[in-house]
Amino acid sequence: MVIGLEGKVAVVTGAASGIGRATAMAFAKSGARVVVADVQTDGGEETADRICKLGCEATFIHADVSHPQNVDALLRRTVERYGQLDCACNNAGIEGAQAPTDACSEENWDRVLTINLKGLWLCMKYELPLLLAQGGGAIVNIASIAGLVGFTNLPAYCASKGGVVQLTRTAALEYAQRGIRVNAVCPGGIRTPMLDRLFHEQPEMEAGLTAAHPMGRLGKPAEIAEAVLWLCSDAASFVTGQALAVDGGYVAQ
């Protein structure tokens, strides 16, 4: 399915690699002007450069989503440059350290929840007024199947992604009659730098996680990007408050 977002402006956080990069590039290929946001300057600039080499328009803005001043500046600069905001993909996140719940450090808990949940809430806090001012738009939050089912040794990550799902539902209800749709995508095992780090720490995990997906394979970042674009498009005009699992059948078991 070809989704056209010509004339739209999209912001993608955590766009230096993985799902964020794939989503930023998919937005650009669909005709949108893209703001690439990330705390990692080199990767973010590379994403924007790749988009520009395709003949599309993109701007990199350094932003740490855990700091409200950074998020405010990101959205202000977006409107200053492009005059509007139509779509946002709030993707920035970390996996944190692996440990069972009783061994999860307070430092790890705070860091994961601050970036994955507070950071996403801050993005919505500053995105929503801009969307309201222009009469509507779409937000897609990247959660995880770890927000729908439990995973051992990732208590902070699972809690943060479960929070993203509930925050998405709440905002969807609040703005359903004000022209703003808010949805979440919950990826299964996707080949990203984050998953590669987990596999490096636990090599035996790769085969087990692959086998756990009924399709018998891991997903690709581009497959998540396509779901994000659909949810931001008019093709999903009656869809809001959903936590869409894109997971090769994982949570259907």
Question: What tags apply to this protein structure?
Answer:
7 strands, Rossmann fold, 253 residues, 15% strand
- Indicate the mean pLDDT: 96
Outline type: globular
In spatial order, strands of the major sheet run 3-2-1-4-5-6-7
The CATH topology comes to: Rossmann fold
Q: What is the CATH class name?
A: Alpha Beta
SSE ordering: EHEHEHEHEHEHHHE
Query: How far is the first residue's CA from the last residue's CA?
Result: 28 Å
Helix content class: 40-55%
Low-confidence stretches: none
Proportion of beta-strand residues: 15-25%
Largest sheet: 7 strands, parallel
Number of strands: 7
> In CATH, what is the homologous superfamily?
NAD(P)-binding Rossmann-like Domain
Treating each run of at least 4 consecutive H or I residues as one helix, how many helices? 8
What would CATH call the architecture?
A: 3-Layer(aba) Sandwich
- Number of structurally distinct domains: 1
Instruction: Give me the Rg, rounded.
Output: 17 Å
Q: Structural class given helices, strands, pairing?
A: alpha/beta
Task: Tell me about this structure.
With 253 residues, the protein is of the alpha/beta class. The chain has a single domain (9-244), classed as Rossmann fold, CATH 3.40.50.720. The chain has helices at residues 18-29, 41-53, 68-82, 106-133, 155-175, 193-201, 205-212, 221-232; strands at residues 9-13, 33-38, 58-62, 87-90, 137-142, 180-187, 243-246. It has a seven-stranded parallel β-sheet with strand order 3-2-1-4-5-6-7, with helices on both faces. Helix 4 (106-133) links the parallel strand 4 (87-90) and strand 5. Helix 1 packs across helix 8. The longest helix has 28 residues, at 106-133. It is globular, with a radius of gyration of 17 Å. The two termini are 28 Å apart. The mean pLDDT is 96.
